[in-house]
Write a structure and sequence with these properties.
mainly alpha
C-alpha cells in the first residue's frame, strides 16, 4: 500500500467506523492502523502483493498477539481481521488506489 500517512490515518478512522457499524461493536482506529502497518510489512517480506485476505489474517494474528492485543474470547479474531481487510479494499478504491487481491 503506497499512500501517504495522512491518507492512512484517515483510512484507519473510516475503516474502524465502518467495521464498528457493520459488526455492532467498537473497533479502535489504532487496531486498523496496526493491521495496515503490519500488512505492508507482510506483503513485502513474503513478496506477495496480492495475498488473499484469509492468508493475510493468518499472518497478522501472531503479530497482533505480540503487540499485546487481546485475541482470546471476545478479542481480535481472524474473521475480524478479514472484515477490516475488506473495508480497507473499499477505502482504497474510494481513494483512487484500488489494490488487487487474490480471492480466498
Amino acid at each position: 500500500m503506497a499512500f501517504d500517512k495522512k491518507l492512512a490515518e484517515e483510512g484507519a478512522d473510516w475503516i474502524a467506523e465502518m467495521v464498528s457499524e457493520d459488526l455492532g461493536g467498537f473497533i479502535p482506529a489504532e487496531l486498523v492502523d496496526l493491521v495496515m502497518e503490519f500488512e505492508v510489512r507482510i506483503r513485502k517480506e513474503r513478496t506477495d502483493p496480492e495475498m488473499d485476505h484469509q492468508a493475510m489474517a493468518d499472518a497478522l494474528m501472531p503479530l497482533i498477539e505480540q503487540e499485546g492485543v487481546p485475541t482470546q474470547t471476545g478479542g481480535v479474531t481472524r474473521d475480524l481481521l478479514v472484515e477490516i481487510l475488506h473495508w480497507e479494499d473499499e477505502f482504497l478504491s474510494m481513494a483512487g488506489q484500488p489494490r488487487s487481491v487474490r480471492a480466498s
